[in-house]
Amino acid sequence: MIIQSSFNKNIEESIRQHWHLPALSDYDQQTFRYRDVAEDIAKLHILFAKAGIHKGDKIAICGRNMSRWGIALLATLSYGAVAVPIMHEFHPEQIHHVVNHSDAKLLFVGDLVWKKLDIEKMPHLDSVVRITDWASLSAHDSAVQETLTSLNRQFGEQYPTYFGPENIQYHEDRPEELAIINYTSGTTSNSKGVMIPYRALVGNMSCADDLFGEHAKAGDTILSMLPMAHTLGMSFEFLYEFIIGVHIHFLTKMPTPSILLKVLADIRPVALVCVPLIIEKVVRKAIMQKISDPKIRLLLKTPIVGRKIKNKICQGLRNAFGGNFYEVVIGGAAMNQEVESLLHDIGFNFTIGYGATECAPLISCEDWKNFVPGSCGKAMRCMEVRINSSDPQTVAGEILVRGQNVMLGYYKNPEETAATLRDGWYHTGDLGIMDRKGNIFIKGRIKNLLLSSNGQNIYPEGIEDKLSNLPYVQECVVVQRDGKLYGLVFPDMYLVKKQGLSQADLTAKMDENRKVLNTQLSAYEQVAGIILRDEEFEKTPKRSIKRYLYS
């Protein structure tokens, strides 16, 4: 489709064109048609005006994915205010900080989150609105409370005879205008407020259209699995689908494997976007256990029979994810190499993208038919990537990016902005190489890079990838202490208990793992020991380990 340069024009046109089509559904609950979304947006615009919200003011949104979360976002942007999405899994003190740091005047919040918050710790917040039904939870101005209790009446007074497509007229956004402040999850440091302009939202819509445009149309369905407070879920499971008339479904609950598989079978989404954790869990349980039998492994090596078995496995995996998608786009974290190789070997239609919150989020991706295993695709049409290295094809260097999707900077943080946006390039902090065709291969983070005693670069992520494939390892982080490498491991307690292993048994198993691991590593990467942990590593809401806590 032709995507307009104005974000809000795309929203306007989609609502007008798809007026009677279903737009948003809370699974097994209510459904909003595009016209219903427009009416709720109009009601919220009445609220914003009564609450003294002006263009450029900040409105925070914090809660589980649901239809009204999306409506709150669209209402904010179409009014000309700045949206501040907040991960509902953030600690209450983090939420207080984001609300205060962003200068938010109004907060949309879910019930579960609100119970944990302290309004006294957000002194500059004028109003708090419950996201499930637009009810007032707190307001300095009684007029706001009165407005929320009579929204339907006030809507009727503003549109006394008719509300139709011709009544849709939203804020005229400019490319460089601030649209969203998105706070990073903080895997290597504390959160920063990424200032995302409208051009970056439109750029990511174009990226999504390049990936799905030929295969998705109005009336198709998609499942929103990723948190919309994260740019990957927001851009690729909501905003793009909304502008092309797709029916977006929200789980509104934790996606346990049994619930997720049932919902996928019911909805049969036209596209899938997910983080590696979801794919890896399904693959390990649905495939790896089945092919662990030596007889099956032997058959897999035979040309004709092996191909038939792989085709059957591939079709089974496709069916598990609904069976109606063109490709699965995986992003948000590094993919386990063993799982990736297996998926490629069976012919599963997946691809891996690369992005950052600072690019809202997409930097690179590739159609699954052209995807090179081990890579994260090529730079998108609206982006340019180069490797800051003497030999970008063989010597890893920092990945530098510029283009339409790049942020304006960090909110109230000129020092970090100046350090990250230099000479017209966004310095990602990631290390990688790029082949002659432009395929990008990520090696790790600069902040994670370790040096051996003889000056060799050590990428802990590569060691962790191998360690995580060994028995009884559920999660791991490789650290350097006193010049030696150690693997911090949280074991697979389900398997440990199932096999009745004692602590001594487990320690012995881990030492066996260490020896096996070292046979796969260079001399300067040898792991000196495995240190067991009693609890999981602390993670960001997108399930990445907060490495800086363990370095």
Overview of the molecule:
The chain starts with 6 loop residues before the first helix and ends in a 19-residue tail after the last strand. The model has no long low-confidence stretch (mean pLDDT 92). It is 36% helix and 23% strand. Helix 2 (34-50) crosses helix 3 (67-79), helix 2 (34-50) packs across helix 7 and helix 8 (198-212) packs across helix 9. It is of the alpha/beta class. The longest helix is centred in the middle third of the chain and has 18 residues, at 303-320. It folds into 3 domains: 7-250, ANL, N-terminal domain (Rossmann fold, 3-Layer(aba) Sandwich); 272-324 and 327-446, ANL, N-terminal domain (Rossmann fold), CATH 3.40.50; 449-549, 2-Layer Sandwich (GMP Synthetase, Chain A, domain 3).
The CATH topology annotation of the largest domain reads as: Rossmann fold
Give the mean pLDDT.
Answer: 92
Q: Indicate the overall shape.
A: globular
Query: How many distinct beta strands?
Result: 28
Separation, N- and C-terminal Cα atoms = 47 Å
Helicity level, as a percent range?
25-40%
Q: Quote the beta fraction.
A: 15-25%
CATH architecture of the largest domain: 3-Layer(aba) Sandwich
Which blocks of ≥5 consecutive residues have pLDDT under 50? Answer: none
What topology, given as strand order, has the largest sheet? Answer: 4-3-5-6-7
Tally of structural domains: 3
What Rg is obtained from the alpha carbons, in whole angstroms? 24 Å
Oligomer: single chain
Q: Which structural class do the helices and strands define?
A: alpha/beta
* Corresponding CATH superfamily of the largest domain: ANL, N-terminal domain
Main sheet specs: 5 strands, mixed
Count of DSSP-assigned helices: 18
CATH top level class name of the largest domain: Alpha Beta
